[in-house]
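Human: For the file, kindly provide a plain-text protein record giving the amino acid sequence and the backbone structure tokens, at your earliest convenience.
Assistant:
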Amino acid sequence: MASLALICLLAVAAAIAAAIAESAVAPGTKPNIILLFNDDQDITLGGTTPMAFTEKLMSTGATVDNFFVNTPVCCPSRTTLLSGGYPHNWHTTTGGCMHMNVMNDQFRQRTIGIYMKALGYTTGQFGKLLNPNGVAAYCAKTNAVPVPGFDSYLTMCNDNRYFGNTFTSNGTFVEKGKDPEDYLTSVIGNHSLDFIEASLQAGRPFFAYISPHAPHVPATPAPWYADKFSDKQAPRTPNYNYSAADHHYVIRSQPILTSKEGNESDALFRDRWRSLLSVDDITKDVVSLLEKYDQVDNTYILWTSDHGFQLGQFRLPSCKLQPYDHDIRVPFRIKGPGLKQGSHSFVASMVDVAPTIIELGGGTVPEEMDGHSFASLLMSDSSAPKDETRDRMTIEYWTLGNVIRYGHYIDMPNNTYIGIRLVNDTHNYLYVEYYQDVKEMKFTDKGFEFELFDVSKDPYQMKNLYGTPEADDQLVTELHEYLHKQVVCKGQEECKL
């Protein structure tokens, strides 16, 4: 990459070019689309701050202020992104990729790449697709199954490493070492650049799904960025190390964060920021490449993440898995032709991303997708009125069991829940119902704990209003009824906004 002097471009351009067939679509008739999808990148804790170039670039585009994930954990959120389907429609009781049934033809035939290829796009995927047990068939050393929907790919086969990685590269098993040029984010970036340049040289519209592992733990920075941000610590938000006795069991049972645990969280915070500098380098080099081929104005760049993160909030030292804004509110920014610049206040969520990309590419959202495109709401020439119905989204989470970080239980068997996030001109609420039936979770009325927060008055969700005189019982009833319809819906017709 031009901005990484220690990195040599990988010799993959010829193989990628060979995978790009002659276009059936005339050059210039469709926009290119790039999705930059980071891992664990929050908004609440300043997770976008270190990506200064990307921030400046995207400031000239559009921002969806109220963008949320439908589930605050890696594989289910990525399943939602890839399929445009709610997690409950891929749920399995057999474990799998964090309770998602992704190793079957039904899922493989409904990923975003499949739809973009049908629209005439050359498609590429680079980085983390799903967690390791979700990509096992693609990562076999022999007789690997092709990653569905992508003409070219470099898919991570392992997890939680920034050196010594293994990949499947267009069906070939690849092992990387521990030299500077093997740094994970740079490898992903270099393959992405080769794919984009080969597509541009072929005069074909492309869809590039670039998914670095950063800033996921251990958030190992590139050696050339290892000394950055040495004076920073994790933000001391009002709910940092806060004892929330009126919250659900996982939260109210937390012991105080010790100084040692706080220091560990601070060290992780610094490494998270450092690791994102290499992601910012990818953006710089992608834009330089688009400028070289005069394609900046014909390319949509979308930037988001699979979920947020916590570093001391409610005494949880690190991780995600909770329904609060630090875990479910993530960046969604987009730059490209015809957009109305600035902030947009409607509510959207991860399930809507694939439908939006399809519409940006000139397609119609498939009936089998649960999500709804919000592309028209972003366009400067759109006659669409303010979408008053886009004021809510649903959350679903199946516990991973007992999960411990720095001596704290950040997940427990009673941490399965469904919820709803409501934001409009008069209301800004989070409502959550907790369940103990971890495997089946039939979404009955048998929630055993409940939470309600007025986020306008309580932006850090520190005071649970459920069951108090301050609770709006009529609103609770409305949210409960809407939630229980949405968490069993399937397809465009049933999953109406």
Notes: The mean pLDDT is 92.
